[in-house]
Amino acid sequence: MPRLCSPPPDFGTTKDPDWSRSRVLLLLAATATAAVPGISAAGATPSSRLATAAADAELLVWGPGHHRPHGLPPLPAGVSPALISHVVLRELGWLERLQVVDLGCHQAPAVPHLRLPGLESAGPANCLSSGAALDPQRVTALLERGHRWGAALDPTRPLVLAECVPGGTSTALAVLRGLGLAADGLVSGSLRRSAHGLKASLVDAGLTAAALNSGQGSPQQVLAAVGDPMQALAAGLLSAASRRGVAVLLAGGSQMAAVLALALALTAPELRPGLASQVRLATTAWVAEESDSDLNRLLALIGERWQVRPRLEVAALRFHGSSCRALADYERGFVKEGVGAGGLAWLWQGQGREPATLARACEAACAELLAEAGA
Predict the structure, then answer these.
(1) Strands 23-28, 98-102: parallel, antiparallel or unpaired by DSSP?
(2) Which secondary structure element, helix H or strand E, spans residue 317, and what is its range?
(3) Is the pTM of this model over 0.90?
(4) Neighbouring C-beta atoms of residue 259, cutoff 10 Å
């Protein structure tokens, strides 16, 4: 039985957008924070995490059964959530709607993708404990790029925003703390039991080094001190897209909560309710029901701080009794979320598809992936 969560945020009453017209944007980024031993399970070792973003992007676009130059890094348990996302996009016929953006990963994916010029793609962020994760000029460039993209979007086509950033739940905690939210213990992660103590110690070190322990830093200062490139571009994009009237689905958990918090902090107070009304955060049941974190409470804190009502959706996809052990591991607390899996699984339901059908399709894809690995 899942634990009782704190009361969910108010879902509001705005009219549903036409999610069937969605376009999907996957932002790949990297942070040296992922090299800290014990911080992440997005790859069993720090060295294996260097290829995680490239491997996940290739699995997302091509799926199993296709030669992929970057092999999936070994995991302590489970399988990449990119497999779930691929199945959804393939079965809905949405793969052609996907755009992959590399914001400076260790290794570039072999699939067609966009790599931005100049500072925007200037390599991985430094470890957040340094208090100097990103060049302030790069933060400005990423925010401006996101604003330009958001302002140019078609309001009739919703945007699904996904990410792949190993170590990203740690930078999420750091950004939330830097913005003044008491987020310790609330943020999820890829480990079966989140390394809350380790994450908090890194955040303490980074905020102290940047003299931001008061929680009164500007969003730009917080990003430069302890953030990652995905957060900066996504926050600028979300802020501008909402003003454009574009519905946005933040497909993820804690990392997307941090993006929402940044976007709200960047937005004028009178415009914040409008932003919140245009945005939903959608995640997996494994994150929403996790006993070791609390996304409901985290969104409630964001709502209280910026006087809005965040909207949360939870996908019904489950792998109870799955014939594929790697998928059944999700029910044991491994992996949980990533590469847009929760949001895309929620959109699957919105298109009139049964979660059990998605689970069976994921089992078939997982069997093919494991057979391929054993070949």
Answers:
(1) parallel
(2) none
(3) yes
(4) 30
